[in-house]
Amino acid sequence: MTITIYDVAREANVSMATVSRVVNGNPNVKPATRKKVLATIKELGYRPNAVARGLASKKTTTVGAIIPDISSIFFAELARGIEDIATMYKYNIILSNSDQNKDKELQLINTMLEKQVDGIIFMGGNISEEHADAFESSSVPVVLAATYDGTDTLASVNIDYKQAAYEAVNYLIEKGNDKIAFVSGHEDTMIDRLKEEGYRQAMQEANKQVIDDYILHGDYSYHYGLKAADKLLKLEDKPSAVFAASDEMALGVVHGIQDKGYKVPEDLDVVGFDNTRLATMVRPTLTTIVQPMYDIGAVAMRLLTKFMNKEEVDEKKVVLPHRLIERDSTK
Predict the structure, then answer these.
(1) Of 111, 122, 253, 279, which is most buried, counting CB atoms within 10 Å of its CB?
(2) One fold for both 5-48 and 61-158+293-321?
(3) CATH class held by domain 161-290
């Protein structure tokens, strides 16, 4: 049988209001009374009803986090950053996997709001008009993490994706590469378009030819990296370097090159993006752009706490620093 606040009040011979004050940490309770109520709570095994408390306070101390792929190392590190700051500020997390499917994303947003979360952290591909409408009509604050908002209206935490890609390609050019391939994710997402713009800008400024066959779009998976390497090495005019838009794809590219009997970096240089743990697991270790995934999650959660607690927010669009870390996959 479920133990209620009424049962605790009856057994402790106090009012339900007193039990409520003890449970919520209200200091206006005599020490002896507090000790008696806490002992009764322990004896009966009472667990406060978070939903009921939320209805009374209009806060559930719960945040919804919508993530494209929980199994991805990239999003796992983001989620850890969110979780650590949420714990620090005594919020619980409802974590949902959207598969980067727009219909599922919109459904999950509505589900989170129905569960009366106090705020939402959203990670996805594109912010469509439907997303923007859902967020605008939301009764709780929303913060985007590692997600680009083309409407420029939503609070967000990102890095400068175009500049990061530009620096990665410039680095490869400085290493003496003329023929640089770009292996990217979904062609229709804003972040991928920004990375491609950075790639093209670096090539054009260095007077290097941008070859259509060198630009491949698929997804961010290891398997697509393998497939991309196979395609590039079948070209009559093979590239001398590959810039991959994620470490997981870069890992596939490295293994795909090795499977064909070529060597990294002796035959082809490879640069990744993200600096996940994979970058140091592959051999040779991966030169990559450091995108601070944990920090993005942590800063997004802290920004959300400010909105939820109506604190002053100086800048609602946060751009964190990135850098390139050189390892053994480049000469």
Answers:
(1) 253
(2) no
(3) alpha beta
